[in-house]
Specification:
binds flavin-adenine dinucleotide; single chain; elongated; alpha/beta
Length: 88
């Protein structure tokens, strides 16, 4: 039996997080591919909210999205790490 395709998304920002969520639903949930998201940080915070962090009106500990928790609910794997280079 052919090995399941593996998809790696680097960066869980606005784009990467949305992509991982969609592919998790479309492919990961059905077992058609293994979806992996790697990010240098453990949590995601929507950048337009940064002014609230700067002004002290937001508690990032409460508002930031945990990649680990989100990944288990949305059928993808999260890896904490940084892409350093790419072998072409
Ligand atoms: C203050 C502020 C306000 C904004 N307001 C708006 C707004 O009102 N409306 C709007 O549409 N847009 C707004 N934007 C722009 C919007 O936030 C960006 O367009 C959007 O975040 C870009 O998404 P992205 O996925 O490309 O990158 P990002 O959201 O920046 O995500 C990049 C991710 O990649 C990770 N990463 C980076 N390098 C590596 C690496 N080498 N290895 C592993 N992980 C890595 C980072 O940790 C990060 O999680 C705002 C931006 C800022 C800074």
């Amino acid at each position: 039996m052919a090995e399941k395709p593996k998809i790696l998304i680097v960066g869980g920002g606005a784009a990467g997080l949305e992509l991982a969520t969609r592919l998790g639903k479309l492919l990961g949930k059905k077992g058609l591919a293994q979806i992996n998201l790697i990010d240098a940080k453990r949590t995601h915070l929507w950048k337009p909210l940064l002014h609230e962090v700067a002004s002290g009106s937001m508690d990032t500990g409460r508002e930031a999205l945990s990649y680990r928790a989100h990944s288990t609910e949305h059928n993808y794997y999260f890896h904490l790490g940084t892409l350093a280079s790419l072998n072409a």
